[in-house]
TrEMBL record:
Source species taxonomy: Bacteria, Bacillati, Actinomycetota, Actinomycetes, Kitasatosporales
SUPFAM superfamilies, A to Z: Thiamin diphosphate-binding fold (THDP-binding)
Keywords: Oxidoreductase, Pyruvate, Thiamine pyrophosphate
Source organism (scientific name): Streptomyces lonegramiae
Cofactor(s), by name: thiamine diphosphate
N-terminal signal peptide: none
UniProt name for this protein: Pyruvate dehydrogenase (Acetyl-transferring) E1 component subunit alpha
Sequence ranges of Basic and acidic residues compositional bias: 38-47
InterPro entries documented for this protein: Alpha-ketoacid_DH_E1_comp, DH_E1, PdhA/BkdA, THDP-binding
Length: 384
């Protein structure tokens, strides 16, 4: 089944522009959907999925725990324990659905918001917080989970993903690569260049765009004249728009796209049409550019509530399941809180390690100068 997507976007502009925005919203293209906002299961002619009750409960658990961890991280930042945090609130279905479509040998290149995908790849949530606390530059070994370090530079990871995909193709590996980026990053030249190379070299890469409709304070309608998934046509590979708040649709579409890549059919673009329920990061105030009515509308499309409604209506989960999951969520939150506050400060001199394989005289000079600078504080304290 396909349904017309709707947009609640009403930026604070003139009345004429608002009318134009409403008209564009009404003209939005259809998207792939397998679970309606009311929790009803529907079918799609191209993308099918037949999950077991255990698999449905597992997807629900993934989304609930990802949201709880994300909320805890936001709270820690507000308490001064983290320098910054980019919330995934509202995008759990897009991330869990696509993340669970991956095979072990597949490789992921995330941005800085893919906390749910990291969960699916087995990265300890605590490890995601070290960089945002300022105690490390990543916190995990990318090759242990085939999950690259977070990329702060907007859009550059699509080039990394394409290059990696070209490499595994030359190696003859049965591997697909999944690259995440947002609607704002789609305006970056790096993304266009990645599309070009992926198409020309038939690279086994899937580009997964989480269109949460706001590039910080800039709405998508100011960045593009066509739906983002249609851009793929100009590069010679297919694109599809999926309901980004439908975990089943995201799982089915991503699984099909990854299999397509593995079998030598080249790249594909997935646009997950979703919504960023919170701020862009904790340094942002979305009330300055978004209306409360917009968020209220999207709350009715909540991805977790949608699946819970389905589970309950079909008798696939009982009160005991939800109670046990709540206890697990509380335990996860406590573990994250305790672990973050116990993180040791980094070694000041580690900044100069792993720069050059054989060392460098300028780095040696800078190391010595910094060591002297640090020692001056100890001398000042002794003097007092």
């Amino acid at each position: 089944m396909t349904v017309e997507s709707t947009s609640a976007r009403k930026p604070r502009r003139s009345g004429a522009k608002r009318t134009s925005a409403k008209r564009r919203a009404a003209d939005q293209p259809e998207l792939v959907q397998l679970l309606t906002p009311e929790g009803e299961r529907v079918e799609h002619p191209e993308y099918s999925l037949d999950p077991t009750p255990e698999e449905l409960r597992a997807l629900y658990r993934d989304m609930v725990l990802s949201r709880r961890f994300d909320g805890e991280a936001t709270t820690l930042q507000r308490q001064g324990e983290l320098g910054l945090w980019a919330s995934l609130l509202g995008q759990e279905a897009a991330q869990i659905g696509s993340g669970r479509a991956l095979q072990d040998d597949d490789y992921v290149f995330p941005t800085y918001r893919e906390h749910g995908v990291a969960w699916c790849r087995g990265v300890d949530p605590v490890n995601l917080l070290g960089m945002f606390r300022g105690v490390n530059h990543g916190g995990w070994d990318p090759n242990s989970n085939n999950f690259h370090l977070y990329t702060i530079v907007i859009g550059s990871q699509t080039l990394h993903a394409t290059g990696y995909a070209m490499g595994v193709a030359k190696d003859g590996a049965d591997t697909a690569v999944l690259a995440y980026f947002g609607d704002g990053a789609s305006s970056q030249g790096d993304v266009a260049e990645a599309f070009t190379f992926a198409a020309v070299y038939n690279a086994p890469v899937v580009f997964f765009c989480q269109n949460n409709q706001w590039a910080i304070s800039e709405p998508t309608e100011r960045q593009t004249r066509v739906p983002l998934y249609q851009r793929a046509q100009g590069y010679g590979f297919p694109g599809v728009r999926v309901d980004g708040n439908d975990v089943l649709a995201c799982l089915a579409v991503t699984k099909a796209a990854l299999e397509r890549a593995r079998t030598g059919q080249g790249p594909m673009l997935i646009e997950a049409f979703t919504y960023r329920m919170g701020a862009h990061t904790t340094s942002d105030d979305p009330t300055r550019y978004r209306r409360a009515e917009e968020r209220e509308l999207w709350e009715t499309k909540d991805p977790i509530l949608r699946l819970r409604t389905h589970l309950t209506a079909q008798g696939l989960a009982d009160d005991a399941f939800f109670a046990e999951l709540e206890e697990e969520s509380d335990a996860l939150a406590k573990r994250v809180r305790d672990a973050v506050r116990a993180m040791p400060d980094p070694d000041d001199m580690a900044l100069f390690e792993h720069i050059y394989a054989d060392g460098h005289p300028l780095v040696d000079e800078e190391r010595a100068q910094f060591a002297e600078y640090q020692a001056s504080f100890a001398s000042a304290e002794e003097g007092n």
